[in-house]
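ASSEMBLY PREDICTION REQUEST
Request ID: AP-0331
Submitted by: J.K., bench scientist
Number of chains: two
Total residues: 259
Priority: normal
Notes: Please return the full assembly, not individual chains.
Input sequences:
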Amino acid sequence: MPLTESLRDDILASVPSLRAFAISLSGNGDRADDLVQETLLRALANIDSFQPGSNLPAWLFTILRNLFRSDYRKRRREVEDAEGNYAKTLKTQPAQGAHLEFEEFRAALAKLPQDQREALILVGASGFSYEDAATICGCAVGTIKSRVNRARSKLAALLYVEGAEDFGPDETVRAVIGTNG
Amino acid sequence: MKDLKSQASKSATPGKQGGLNAEIQSRIGHQLRAMYDDVVRQGVPERFADLIRKLDAPADTPQVRDDGGSNDRNDGRS
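STATUS: Completed
Returned structure:
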C-alpha cells in the first residue's frame, strides 16, 4: 500500500519496540540503532508490498530480524563482545540496583543460542503470539514453543542456580558504582 | 530484589523437576519485560523521527527513497 500518513505514524509508533528488539538481539546500542535505521529504510522502500490490514509490527520485526541474521554472519566476533558493550547501552539507567540486575540478566541472555534468544524475546517481551513469532522467524509454531521453553530453562539455570555464587562480586560492584554517584 | 533472588536460588532445581518452578518463570518474564520496556520507554529518538519525516516529504525529492535497503548503506561500516 502507499505510504499514507497513518501508516507512517504506525511505523513511527513501532520504533521503540523495534529498538528494544534490536538491542536484545545485538546487545549493542549503536549497532541496534543502525539496524533499526536499515529496517525503516527497507520497510519504506518496500512499503508497496505491505498488505493493508496485516500485522505491521510483525512485518517490521521480520525485516529487522532478517537484517540482523544476515549481518550476524558477517559480524560474529562483534556479537561475542555484546556483553561488554551493553553497559554503555544502558547508560541512562536511573536506578543502580535495577541496572545491575539488568546487566546480570542481559549477560545470561547473551549466553543463549540465537534461535532461543529471539524466540524468548518475541514471545516474552515483545508480546507476539507464538504464531506471529513463528512467522517472524520463518519456522513452525511448535519450534517456537520449544525454543522458548529451552530458553527459559537455560536462563533459570544461569541466573538462579549458578548465579547464586556471584553474590560477593555483585556487592563489590554495587559499592564501586555507589561511590561514583 | 536480592531477597527474591536468594529465595529463588534455594527453590530452583530445574533439571530435577519436569518443568520450571512457577516463581522462577514469572521472575524471568518480569526481568525480560523490564529490560525490554526500559528501551521502549526511551521513545522515538530524533534520528528516526527525522528519517521518517524526510522520507515522507512531498514527491520532489524522489531520489531519497532510492537509498532504501541498498547495499550502499553498508559502505563506511566494515
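REVIEWER COMMENTS: Residues 5-18, 60-78 of chain B have pLDDT under 50 and may be disordered.
SIGN-OFF: pending second reviewer
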